[in-house]
C-alpha cells in the first residue's frame, strides 16, 4: 500500500466518531435520492401495467335501465368491434359508524370480464343470489371476512349479502381516496335485487380509435332513437392522472433529497477543514521530506473518496429498502400490481455519481487552499488561534452580555472561533429550518384552500341521486323531516374548456345555500339565458373577464355562454375552476328533463355536528324507503375525504424534512464534538479551577443553542422566499395553491431548530462533563 493511501485510511480510522458522522450524512442523502428514484420508476411501471388501455373501453354510455337487446343493435353499428352491457348500482353499505357509499357492478360473466379484469385473491366468485365479491381494499373501511355478511340498502329495504370472495382490480384506488367501496355481483342477481329492468352501462371497443368522436355521436343517436336516456358518456381512455401526480410528487421529493445530499457535503466540508487544520504540522513534515502538493492533495481527496464510497454503499442499501417500503405502501393504497422489483442501472449510476462526485467537488477547493501552507508556516507553530473575527466577537460578547454567567459566556464567545466550520453548520441548520418552513407553508396553503372550498357552500348535507328525480316531489318530503331547514337542487357535471377541465354547477338564481361572494359583475337571475358566472380560480387561469364568452363541451354536448360575473370559489382549484349557471340552463345542457335534479343540498336547523350526523342517517332511511338509490355525505365527511387525499403528500414531505433535519443534527453534533476535542486543555483548566461537569456541559449546550438561534434568523431570511418558490413548484408539478403563511410556523421553526440543537448537544455536552482535569490536560 502506498504511503499516501495508507495515510488516507489512517485519517478515517483516527477519529472514528467523526468518520461515522460524515459517512452517515452522505448515506442519508444517497438513501433519500435512491429511495425516491426506485419508487418513482417502480410505480411508473406499475401504473403503466395497471392502467393498460387494452383493458379499457373506448366509449362508455351511462343510461337508464335498458333491455339487453340494445347490445346487439350497438354491435351492428359501423366501427364497433365489441360491446359489453353491465349494471352499475350505487348503494349504501351499513357499517358501525353509519353508511359507506358502495358501488356494485353486475357483470354477465364474472369469470371472463371483457373490460377491466380483476384478480380473485380469496374465496370464490358469486354463483347464486345474495352473494357478493368485495374488493380487498374495502376492508380499509371496516373489517369483514370471507364467508361473513354485509348489509346494503335496496329498494326493498336493508338486505344482507354474503361475502364469498375478495378481488383486486388493477388501478382501482382505495375507498379512502375515492370515497366509495366497490363490489361485484352476477348481473341478473343485481338487477333482481335492485328491481332494475336491464343494464345501464354500455362499454364499447372500436375498430378505429381515432374515429371515436364521430362513432360516439352515431351511437348516441341510435340510443335516443330507441327512447333510451343517456345520463352521461365517456369517450376515450382514462387519462393516467395517477402517473402525473406521482411524477410531480417524486420530482419534489428528488429536489428535497438532493438538498439533503448537498447538506451532507457541508458536513463533509466541516470534517475536511478540521482534518486539514489538525494536520498542518504533518503536511509541513511531508513537504520537508519532499512530498509535492499534488501528492498531498491526492491523499486527502482519497480520504474524501473513501468517505463517499462508504456513504454511497450504505445509502444505496438503505435507499433500496426504504424505496421498497414506499412502493408497497403506495401500491396498496392505489391497488397497483407492482410486480417483481426492478433495479434500474441508472439508479446505481446516478447514486454513485452524486454520492461520490458531490463530496469530491465540495472538498476540492478547501483541500487546494489548505495544502498551500509552506513548510515554514506549517512548522512554525501549532495550536488554536482565534481569527480577527473571532476576537471581535469575543469582545462584543464580553461587553454586551456581561450580565450572563461566565459559563454561558464560554459557550457564546467561542462561536466564531472556526469561521468556515461555523458557517457550514449555520447553513445546514438554516436549510433544515427553511425546508421545515416550506412544508409548513405547503400544509397551511393546502388546508386554507380546502377550508375555502367548503366555505362557498352553506349546506350541511349533500345528496347524490343515482338517477335524476323531480325536485318538486323530493322537496316537501325532505322538509317534513325534523331538523331540515332548507333544501335546494344542485346539478353538476365535468366539462371541457380550451384551458382544461372544469366543473359546471347549476344553482337556483335565488339560492340560499351558496355564498355569492362577487368580485366583479353580477349574479344571474331567473330571466338570464346562456350566461355563466366564473370562479376567481377560473378567471386567474384563463384570463377571462366579465363580458367575455367561454365555450364548454362534454363528449356529446357543447355550448357557448357569456360571462356576467366573477365570484370567489376555490372548488376545482386543481383544474380550471368552477362555472356557475342557472339550474335550468345546466339541466338543458345535461339533457335532463325539466324540473329534475341529480343532487340536493340540505341545511340543518342545528349547527351541532352530532345533530347533523343524526339528520343524515334519518334522511338515509327516508330515501331508502322511497326506493331511491342515493349517496349521502355530510360536509364534514367531504372535508375529511379531501384531506385524506393529501395525506400521502404530507407524509412524504415530512419524511424528506426529517432526512434533512437529521443531516443538520449531524452537522451540529460534529462541530460541537470537534470543539470539545480542540478545547480539552481549556476544559481541563476549568475543571482544575473547580468548575463542575454540569457547568462545563452547559457551556457547550449554550454554544449549540446560540448556533441554533443564529440559524433561525438565517432561516427566516431564506425560508420565506424558499417557501414561496416551493408553492410555485408545487403548482407547476402537482396542483396550484395560493401562498398562505401562518405566523405560528415561524415559531414552530424556531422550536424545531432549538430541539434539534438540544438533541445534537446532548452527546458532546455529556462527553465534556465527564472529562476530569487530568484526562483533559494530558491531551496532545
Commentary on this structure:
There is one protein chain. This protein has 780 residues and is α+β, with helices and mostly antiparallel strands. Residues 381-387 have low confidence and may be disordered. Strand 6 (149-154) and strand 7 (157-169) form a beta hairpin. Strands 11, 12, 13, 14, 15, 16, 17, 18, 19 and 20 form a 10-stranded mixed β-sheet that branches. It has a 6-stranded mixed barrel with strand order 2-3-8-5-7-6. 42% of the residues are buried. Helix 7 packs antiparallel against helix 14 (419-455), helix 14 (419-455) packs across helix 22 (693-733) and helix 14 runs antiparallel to helix 23. The protein contains 24 helices and 20 strands. It is elongated, with a radius of gyration of 34 Å.
